[in-house]
């Protein structure tokens, strides 16, 4: 008998979401988020692949995912793991850093997805607990303070590229970004690799290779992520799940539910209830 459980919280007006969960049997399908995602493993250990490598986050370790970082995940043993994770929109991270430094500094880059740092773990747990308590013990002002402190601490202690620095460009990156723009412009269309190749001005193989290298997913998987993100927004807004499935390019409600659960760790219905609680 499985003992998997999860609690989810979503801000009604800001790009902040948080989950507290224990998984023994659930296996995350390879997916990504449009947000920065910072997790803390509380008990047990979870294994996952990210950025071409295999990683394990044991109790007390922090995970740091950049926006669009593809990753999966599962329990490292039969005992499972308990973890907390906070998803923060890039604009919110930039704003928190501005609050901490007094000026807009751009966005950071995290190279290592696992960080063993007790100070970071403490800051992240404090923020997460304040978000999930629904204002019972932490005031709105206190939550803002914890958010600013946690983001500043994570960037200062774990970011590889500090805000303000710029990464170089290349032909492969440009090809990948042109293909990506087509997917963002037409997320529910039945696109082919030829459609992407024409838009990118490159061969089908070049598009596939460049896209995989830049974003860690093939274009079809990336398109599914876009559909799931749109589905989350519609579900949070109160749209019936069956209508959401039709509007986001899924075959039916069960198809959407299957992929939603595999990628986010909870069903669309549970996500809708978490959104409505606020």
Automatic annotation (TrEMBL):
A family per Pfam: HTH_18
UniProt cross-references to SUPFAM superfamilies, sorted A to Z: Homeodomain-like (SSF46689), Regulatory protein AraC (SSF51215)
Residue segments, region Disordered: 160-179
Keyword Transcription regulation on entry: yes
Keywords (A to Z) from UniProt: Activator, DNA-binding, Transcription, Transcription regulation
SMART domains recorded: HTH_ARAC
Residue ranges of domain HTH araC/xylS-type in the record: 177-274
Name this protein carries in UniProt: AraC family transcriptional regulator
Organism in which the protein naturally occurs: Nonomuraea maheshkhaliensis
């Amino acid at each position: 008998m499985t003992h998997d459980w999860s609690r989810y919280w979503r801000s009604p007006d800001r790009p902040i979401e948080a989950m507290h969960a224990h998984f023994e049997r659930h296996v995350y399908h390879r997916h990504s988020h449009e947000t920065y995602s910072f997790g803390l493993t509380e008990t047990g250990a979870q294994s996952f692949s990210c950025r071409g490598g295999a990683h394990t986050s044991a109790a007390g370790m922090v995970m740091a995912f950049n926006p669009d970082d593809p990753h999966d995940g599962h329990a490292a043993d039969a005992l499972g793991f308990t973890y907390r994770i906070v998803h923060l929109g890039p604009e919110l991270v930039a704003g928190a850093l501005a609050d901490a430094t007094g000026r807009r500094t751009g966005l950071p880059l995290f190279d290592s997805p696992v960080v063993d740092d007790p100070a970071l773990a403490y800051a992240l747990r404090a923020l997460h607990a304040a978000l999930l308590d629904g204002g019972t013990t932490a005031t709105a002002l206190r939550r803002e303070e914890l958010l600013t402190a946690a983001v500043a601490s994570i960037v200062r202690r774990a970011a590889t590229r500090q805000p303000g620095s710029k990464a170089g460009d290349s032909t492969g990156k440009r090809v990948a970004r042109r293909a990506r723009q087509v997917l963002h412009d037409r997320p529910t269309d039945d696109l082919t690799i030829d459609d992407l190749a024409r838009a990118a001005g490159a061969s089908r193989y070049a598009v596939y290779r460049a896209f995989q290298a830049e974003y860690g997913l093939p274009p079809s998987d990336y398109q599914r992520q876009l559909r799931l993100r749109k589905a989350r927004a519609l579900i949070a807004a109160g749209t019936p799940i069956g209508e959401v499935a039709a509007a986001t390019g899924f075959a039916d409600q069960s198809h959407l539910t299957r992929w939603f659960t595999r990628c986010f760790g909870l069903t669309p219905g549970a996500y809708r209830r978490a959104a409505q609680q606020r």
